[in-house]
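Please study the protein below:
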Amino acid sequence: VLEYALSGEKPISPNKPVILSCFLLMGIFIPIGIIYLLFLFDDKIHHKKDLETLIPGCSLLGEIPLIHDEKDQIFSNPNQRSILSEASRIISSNTNFLLSNKKTGIGSVIMATSSIKGEGKTFVALNLSLALASLNKKVLLIGADLRNPQIHKYVNEKKNNEGLTNYLHNPGHEWKKAIIKAFKNMPSHHILIAGALPPNPVELLTNGRLDALLEEAKSQYDYIVLDCAPTLLVTDTLLISHLADATVYLTRANQTRKEI
């Protein structure tokens, strides 16, 4: 034996301190990098403060929390004390402030719309109208979205039943015969669904008969709520926007893009 080998109790490889330090840094910086990229490319609205930052001075009427239970998604009882009912009452109360300059004795027209599909305009329009009806006010909810109507789903009516399109198309049609009273606890709440889908919704909405319907309804109802089509997809809503005394514009958390 010319020279004995050098030996020790610890292995020379792998170097544990170096490896642990590297993985510790990776465990810190990789999540931070991923979170930074998520925030960098996140272009959705998430809460009320986003709207206040994007649109300074806007009138925020309220917020409706996410409700998973389908049974609690309709404000069907004036004595209801659910989260949805309280949120709807707040929105209806704040909407009344927008109508403070309205002449008394004449019904007010409230338009509910949004930017794109799926932001909850029909859901809010229905519950807003029910919240107003819970105050012993006569309310008429009209399905003015002739492209993709949704109100009939909430009241278990067939999509092609008589509704607004029948009145707009046929001068001799009586719109009052198509009125639906879907909620027993809300006798002053009436619904006029959109009806069958027409091939010419723009022509129907602008032929002057909707104006006549609203003028007649103003003398019989305290509030008329219009559930209208999204503004960025079609021009229908913009063409009839002058008929509304107030507009409730919907945005949805985690879905509405900030640039919209």
